[in-house]
Amino acid sequence: MPRAICHLDADGARVRLLLPDGADESFVADQAAPDDDAPIADPRREVIEAADWTRLELGTRSRIDVVYLSADESVCTPLSAPSSDPAVIQAALRQRQSEWGDAPASLVQSLAKIEQSKQSPSLKSLLKRKSSAPKPTSAQVLLMAQDGGARLWLDEMDKRGVRVGAVASFWHAMVQVWSPGPRDEVCAVVMIDPSGSLLWTWARGGELITAGRISAAIGESSAAPTGDTLPTEWSRLLLDWITWTSQCGAAPERVVLVGAPAPRLAGMFSKAWENVQVDVVEADDPEGATLEELASRGRVENPDVDDPRACLVELSNRPGRALRRLYLVSSAAIVAFAVGVAGLGLQFRANASDYKRQMTAARVEQSQTLSRIDPTGLLARDPFPARALAARVNALLENTDSGDEPGPPKPILDELILIATEFQELEDVEGASVDLFMISENQASATVRGPRIETIESLRARLQTGDSEIIWRGTISGIPPNVSLRLTGGWANP
Q1: Residue 283 falls inside a structural domain
Q2: Confidence band for 130, pLDDT divided at 50, 70 and 90
Q3: Which residue has the higher pLDDT, 55 or 428?
């Protein structure tokens, strides 16, 4: 499907924007004329102007699918290092830059690794070695670029609410469009700029291996070759390729020439670099043709932002406004959580003070209680007073006589039957009644009412002289026909 793509110069001042509706617009920021009396110009002014123009041209769109960074300030270089560890690579690169006097690049990423040994020690193991000059074990192909202007432009676009899907170099764009091929075939692309400069890439299976740029010699132009001899830039190109062949251990099997003079240069190039298939793409504006293919062809997908052979990984994953907002919210949540934990800690501290006071009061109360039991204070000073008190109780129980065996149970049931029989006969013959009747382990009691005193006295006499195990005592009160007998008694054998 059509995409919105952008071509950006390394300084961020020149922008070429291609939109899905077919629009292809370019912008170059005005450069202030040098003036000895004028103050130093803000280097961000041109970048801000370019960002304002891009935001205006996008209209309602809030996303650029891919931004391709110009290769003018980029270079690919091999680097030998004792390990493929990123920290080792950075250390080796800084050492080489200090020895050769090279300006440090603001962006460095590894494109391809050329293994020369199966062992690749880590940085820690290298630091532990006593040898100060370990042998190189692997070589990296590094892509280095000056991307300060591009970073400023990306930040300005982010401030204006425009998201960028991925950032890649123009070398990656050349590979995406002009280097389709089998995974095991090395395909080279040479783009002939109208100014005479050459941009070239090597790729295998659509993945960038290495790339370079040959500037046009003064007074000569590759766009207009004369005779049967390749221009000077092409000789330099072939020399670079011979060097990279020895570095990578591989050479291009297919070459694609893109540009207006490509048909005339194809034959001369075939003679200079033999046994290679040469394809030609004639285009007056090779840069524009490449960008149009990227913007309009549906088969060209957005690059993987984590693949260094498809994009510039660091710039593609540069944190934007949304990610910074997420970090801000996360930080605020962490601060709130920390405040909550601090408050909870203060509450625990206050509770601990209360618990300490309660424990002190409990110890005082325990000491007072133990002092009443043991005036000597030994129990109170014992670290385990409960255990010591239990030991004393057990000792007292062992030394105390347990007493006689308990006697047999009282014949309560027999007495109940005997007394009930007497009361029943009295009720049937004399018309007496029993108001209360109770026998227990300790005592017995009953209240009987009758119409005659003789009947009541007869009952009392029978109970006192009978076979009962209870010694009864009775008190008679009242007058006929309402005479009552209150009986109380105790066991004869308590």
Answers
A1: yes
A2: very low
A3: 55
Give pLDDT tens digits for 227-252: 667 778 888 899 999 999 988 888 89
Indicate which CATH number applies to the domain containing 177: 3.30.420.40
CA angle 10, 12, 17 (to 5 degrees): 105
303 & 339 share domain: no
Residue 114 is part of which domain span?
74-120+133-144
Q: Which alpha helices (DSSP H) does 374-482 contain, by range?
A: 378-381, 385-398, 412-430, 453-465
Q: What are phi and psi of 406, to 5 degrees?
A: -65, 145
* 216 & 303 share domain: yes
Q: Model's pTM, two decimal places?
A: 0.62
Instruction: List, in sequence order, every residue forming a beta bridge with 162; answer none if it has no partner.
Output: none
Cα 296 from Cα 273, distance rounded (Å): 33
Phi, psi of 483 (to 5 degrees): -105, 135
Alpha carbon 433 to its chain centroid, in Å, reads: 93
Q: Is 418 helix (H, G, I), strand (E, B) or coil?
A: helix
Number of independent structural domains in the chain = 4
Distance CA 168, CA 296 (A): 17
Indicate if 155 and 261 belong to the same structural domain. Answer: yes
